[in-house]
């Protein structure tokens, strides 16, 4: 059976930057069946030709490694309909134009999810349909609950894909291999041996013209509530019975239930906003002066939150989640810091404890250990045991779309996980909204707020 994609928000940044290039790749590798079609729905007064010419530009910009013929094979399949995605009549008309079992993709800002799903619930979907919802999954826990209710009115949970592309990153998948296909790590993967865990996603990029979305979201909703808590879940969860759609989301949900926000948000979180500066060689204006930003919203571009995982395995171990835009260096990694050895039989040595670095960009795993050096036989030196991981043949979005086409929800976020993640960040959001935590300035290109 051919699948038709109905992309709501078909002229948006996400569609042009990530979806179309990934779909072109899936055509190229034969994953997307020949008869599949893509109908884009958006506000612009375009026809099919105007849409195709926009799509050609986007493919040239974001899938330059694929041939023109490959681009054209996808472009030939694209159709466009102008419509309001929150209007039931427009959605009904759009759905009537596609054959087969539709995959309805909400490539929209999170503020539009609720009115769109409300309209979609009024129209209904044929059997075999699937719905894909982007991140962040709503604006808070109440919104996430309302979205889940609407989705469950439309389709069974197995037909719902809540996207988090971090789950399809090579290193993240490799954490599963490292932890559960080897004997050496799991016995020391607990509070008796691990002192702390840092989960970091620092970016040199600034707002990049995304004010319409980002100024409503901020760093906590954009990165922490979804990507960083998913990384935490993969690192901290109990071993699943199998890596499948039943066990993986269930084990992640279990561990998220155990995560507690900081007891005192004033000491357990930091929020910041960049000022003018130069990050990775590019001059950036003050965030508050970026086009489309409402300075009164006090949107943060840097968020740091330290949580605990209150269960048998992790009690007492801090997990620090940190992310920011316009920082001095790109760094996406999880650092597991082990406790010092109980007795050190080397005189005058104070070596650093072992560190395991799981780097997401580039994909690499490195274990920093202490070994005997070349000079005095009993001197210690720091050595790194490292593995550079071969990239997956599909980028993260391509891999997720392939899973989606297979109907496999192993890498999708479940309803419970989505709501639990909001429970964790909600007290932080509330304290920040009430200005209980100061919004600190940091110059673009710096290491972040000097807290
Ligand atoms: C997106 C966020 O989900 O993830 C962006 O909206 C962020 O703000 C991006 O830049 C980071 O993902 P990646 O794959 O580029 O590291």
From TrEMBL:
EC class name: oxidoreductase
GO molecular function, one term: glucose-6-phosphate dehydrogenase activity
Binding locations of NADP(+): 84-85, 135
Recorded superkingdom: Bacteria
Coiled-coil region(s): none
Residue ranges constituting the Glucose-6-phosphate dehydrogenase NAD-binding domain according to the UniProt record: 6-174
Classification via InterPro entries: G6P_DH, G6P_DH_C, G6P_DH_NAD-bd, NAD(P)-bd_dom_sf
Key words of the record: Carbohydrate metabolism, Glucose metabolism, NADP, Oxidoreductase
Stretch forming the signal peptide: none
Ranges for domain Glucose-6-phosphate dehydrogenase C-terminal: 178-450
Record-level GO cellular component terms: cytosol
Reaction(s) this enzyme catalyzes, per UniProt: D-glucose 6-phosphate + NADP(+) = 6-phospho-D-glucono-1,5-lactone + NADPH + H(+)
Residues reported in the UniProt entry to bind substrate: 165, 169, 203, 222, 325
Function comment: Catalyzes the oxidation of glucose 6-phosphate to 6-phosphogluconolactone.
PANTHER family attached to this UniProt entry: GLUCOSE-6-PHOSPHATE 1-DEHYDROGENASE, GLUCOSE-6-PHOSPHATE 1-DEHYDROGENASE G6PD
Protein's name according to its UniProt entry: Glucose-6-phosphate 1-dehydrogenase
Organism: Geodermatophilus obscurus (strain ATCC 25078 / DSM 43160 / JCM 3152 / CCUG 61914 / KCC A-0152 / KCTC 9177 / NBRC 13315 / NRRL B-3577 / G-20)
